[in-house]
Design goal:
By secondary structure, the protein is of the alpha/beta class. Helices cover about 50% and strands about 10% of the residues. It has 30 helices and 17 strands. The strands form three sheets. It has an eight-stranded mixed sheet with strand order 12-11-10-13-14-15-16-17, with helices on both faces. A six-stranded mixed sheet has the order 1-2-3-4-6-9, sandwiched between helices. Strand 1 and strand 2 form a beta hairpin. Helix 6 runs antiparallel to helix 11, helix 10 runs antiparallel to helix 11 and helix 26 crosses helix 29. The structure holds 3-hydroxybutanoyl-coenzyme A and 1,4-dihydronicotinamide adenine dinucleotide (NAI). 3-hydroxybutanoyl-coenzyme A binds next to strand 5, helix 4 and helix 13.
């Protein structure tokens, strides 16, 4: 027998243990080994029942996602075939889950006759996050076991539930506590089922819970309506609902056939390819050049945040949400009080939306300790500085931190544009200085750009990467350059959007095109949200170093001078009704735009949606190519993560670099070249883009030299 499964006998029960590290994915070889073990157990007259358990950290991550590209996931025995074999078995099969059991693993459990799980085991169907529907009967069996409403929540959200919740829902027969042994409990259950006089019960024959759903025919349309906003643009969540609906309206065999057909269609779609790419990109980003797997990390047990403004307050919340005590400091009691008040308001709003209990909110707030005493930072493991964007101030603060903080503490800065090396230079420990660039709102956006200074050590990077995971963030390592990768790519995008309105478009047209493309909002709505005054201040600050041939549209400055700061003043690129965030086009702005075009001597023209998309997207992709060429990012997929998690780039398009690959780099290059010929302005195609386009290669294939 292959080593992928181990077979043991406990009295008359065969225990099959899956052993396919790291995550027991059901790759072809494991499926063959499991099938052979099942058949051997069925054929052995001395065996009365079987148990399926697993070795390693988790039970299983489900199907091997890498097999979707080659089609090997359908090779016989496929997961659906294996599960049918189990469900039809004349002897009871009990599964013993631990750690995590998701996707095909959860579906396998649904086909078993008994289900045992260690306390805390995460069980779920995350297929939707990969742009597919569960393809091994999950959409047909789960509603039969726990009812349609609960099944829809699990399948459409992709979020796992715990074994305890599974027991309450009827999914898990027995939860095994820390003092128990899951395999022993499963063997005992298997033995009991075997001594039962009736044949093992088949999940597919259950109908009682489906009958209840047939009484509420509106349930599926209601659900579609409920997720419409959250799932905008995604195909898989709606395909999942269709499959569960088929479970209710069709006989099992037809429902399964419909699920299979839907699974194959989704698996072969561009959306699923992009979402699978994003899954592997997230894992790839954890592998950083020069940081070996076994690099020692500092355990972060206590943290501090300097500055309790917009970012500092949000970052402090990230620590509290992860259960890490955090001190926040300011230089003035009044400002500190106001910062803490903003944090409390933020939690209160989450509680009022029903997303957090008030006890949990209180527990989190109690982990945040406001203090004016700098010396209190002496025994924290990491400090994240989030004071004003001012080099002199930051240097002063890092000098003081160096004197006060423990010798092994990490000193991080949340600067959005300043030179991390210069900041590190004032300390005696530049190897422990790193940038941790959170995105606004810091407690919501998942991206942290981890800025690696010239001296930053592998230990500091490993610590910061591990910390970002603990905070529920996606950490992406980038090098030092002006504005780092995310904002550096954002600037040409916003700049072109502004030139387009001088040439003939209006903000609402540009925003509509980018919203329809899948971004949460277009550049003008974003500018109103972030604050036109903030953008103005950044431009003032950067003016002395602005390259003379880098022009920017002056319309935003005019808005600033008119006191139109965006949502906060109910007027910006748009106007806003009292208490509403809905942008309404404003004739005053349209007049300003038209008169600016006139003053510049530009004859306004009709601009197509296609030109808008290309003029905004391709320059940011072009800047991404420069960033790769300069070694600021290690791989194109890191830039894709930055856009997905920092700016809400639609995951079903895989990020801008993946999008460029799917459009074809030849087309992107030639379009950039034509933009450059017409508009000049920093639109010259990047050498790497040109090079890859000429060779017929993709950003995905490119590796840093
Ligand atoms: N297939 C192939 N490789 C997988 C995999 C899978 N299902 N799940 C994880 N891996 C790989 C990862 O890429 C990583 O590889 P690397 O070390 O080379 O980078 C390695 O296994 C370890 O994974 P993680 O770093 O993610 O390990 P964690 O312990 O952090 O997380 C996990 C474990 C929660 C199970 C997480 O890996 C995960 O979410 N996996 C995917 C789960 C999933 O989406 N399953 C559904 C698959 S589709 C399916 O089952 C179809 C069916 O309906 C027919
Ligand atoms: P902010 O102005 O909202 O907050 C800064 C806070 O620092 C203020 O409350 C101020 O009182 C405090 N502060 C100033 N000097 C201090 C000192 N010596 N000791 C303690 N506290 C002090 O600014 P914001 O927006 O939070 O930005 C902070 C940093 O984060 C800046 O470096 C900024 O570039 C960066 N950043 C900002 C983003 C944003 O969207 N606002 C996004 C990402 C990074």
């Amino acid at each position: 027998m292959s080593q992928l499964v181990r077979i043991d006998r406990v009295d008359a029960v065969t225990v099959i243990t899956l052993d396919n590290p790291p995550v027991n994915a059901f790759a072809f070889d494991l499926r063959v080994a499991l099938r052979d073990a099942l058949v051997a157990g069925m054929d052995d007259d001395g065996v009365e029942a079987l148990v399926i358990a697993a070795a390693g950290r988790i039970f299983s991550a489900g199907a091997d996602i890498r097999e979707f590209d080659s089609g090997a996931s359908s090779d016989s025995p496929s997961l659906p075939e294996l599960i049918t074999t189990i469900e039809d078995a004349p002897k009871p099969v009990v599964v013993a889950l631990h750690g995590t059991a998701v996707g095909g693993a959860c579906e396998l459990a649904l086909g078993c006759h008994g289900r045992v799980a260690e306390a805390g085991t995460k069980i779920g169907l995350p297929e939707v996050t990969l742009g597919i529907v569960p393809g091994a009967g999950g959409t047909q069996r789960l509603p039969r076991v726990i009812g349609v409403a609960a099944a829809l929540d699990i399948i459409v959200s992709g979020k796992p539930i715990t074994a305890e919740r599974g027991r309450d829902l009827g999914l898990i027969d027995e939860v095994v506590g820390a003092d128990g042994d899951r395999v022993e409990v499963a063997v005992a259950l298997a033995h009991r089922l075997a001594t039962d006089s009736t044949a093992p019960a088949k999940t597919r024959e259950r109908d009682d819970l489906l009958a209840e759903a047939r009484e509420q025919p509106g349930i599926f349309d209601d659900y579609r309506g409920k997720i419409a906003r959250r799932a905008r643009g995604f195909e898989a969540p709606f395909a999942c609902i269709d499959c569960v609906e088929a479970a209710v309206t069709r006989p099992f065999a037809e429902g399964i056939a419909f699920e299979r057909e839907t699974f194959v269609r989704c698996r072969d779609s561009e959306q699923s390819k992009a979402q699978r790419y994003a899954f592997f990109a997230e894992r790839q980003a954890r592998k950083v050049r020069g940081v070996e797997r076994d690099t020692p990390e500092l355990t972060i047990a206590r943290a501090a945040v300097l500055g309790c403004g917009t970012m500092g307050g949000g970052i402090a919340m990230c620590f509290a949400n992860a259960g890490i005590p955090v001190i926040v400091t300011e230089s003035d009691q009044g400002v500190l009080d106001r910062g803490m008040e903003a944090i409390r308001r933020n939690y209160a709003s989450t509680v009022s939306k029903g997303r957090l209990s008030s006890d949990d909110a209180e527990a989190r707030i109690s982990l945040i300790e406001p203090s004016l005493d700098f010396d209190q930072l002496a025994d924290v493991d990491i400090v994240i500085e989030a004071v004003f964007e001012d080099m002199a101030l930051k240097k002063d603060i890092f000098g003081r931190l160096d004197a006060v903080c423990r010798a092994d503490a990490v000193l991080a800065t949340n600067t959005s544009s300043l030179d991390v090396n210069e900041i590190a230079s004032v300390t005696s420990r530049p190897e422990q200085v790193v940038g941790t660039h959170f995105f606004s709102p810091a407690n919501v956006m998942r991206l942290v750009e981890i800025v690696r200074g010239a001296a930053t050590s592998p230990e500091t990077l490993a610590t910061t990467l591990a910390l970002s995971r603990r905070l529920g963030k996606v950490g992406v390592v980038v090098g030092v350059c002006d504005s780092f990768a995310a904002n550096r790519m954002l600037y040409p995008y916003s700049r072109q959007a502004q030139f387009l309105i001088e040439e003939g478009a209006f903000p609402e047209q540009i925003d509509r095109v980018l919203y329809d493309f899948g971004l949460p909002m277009g550049p003008f709505a974003l500018s109103d949200l972030a604050g036109i005054d903030v953008g103005w201040r950044v431009r003032q600050h950067r003016e002395p170093t602005r390259p003379k041939n880098l022009r920017y549209s002056a319309i935003a400055d005019r808005l600033y001078e008119m006191g139109r700061y965006g949502q906060k003043t109910q007027k910006g690129w748009y106007r806003y009704e009292e208490g509403s965030r809905t942008p309404i086009p404003d004739p005053e702005v349209a007049d300003l735009i038209v008169s600016t075009s006139e003053a510049l001597g530009i004859e306004r023209r009709e601009i197509s949606d296609e030109e808008i998309l290309e003029r905004c997207m391709y320059p940011l992709i072009n800047e991404g190519a420069r960033i790769l060429d300069e070694g600021i990012a290690e791989r194109a997929s890191d830039l894709d993560l930055i856009w997905m998690h920092g700016f809400g780039f639609p995951r079903y398009r895989g990020g801008p670099m993946f999008y460029a690959d799917s459009v074809g780099l030849k087309h992107v290059y030639e379009t950039m070249k034509s933009f450059f010929e017409v508009h000049h302005d920093w639109l010259e195609p990047a050498p790497l883009l040109e090079h890859l386009a000429r060779e017929g290669r993709t950003f995905g294939e490119w590796t840093a030299p």
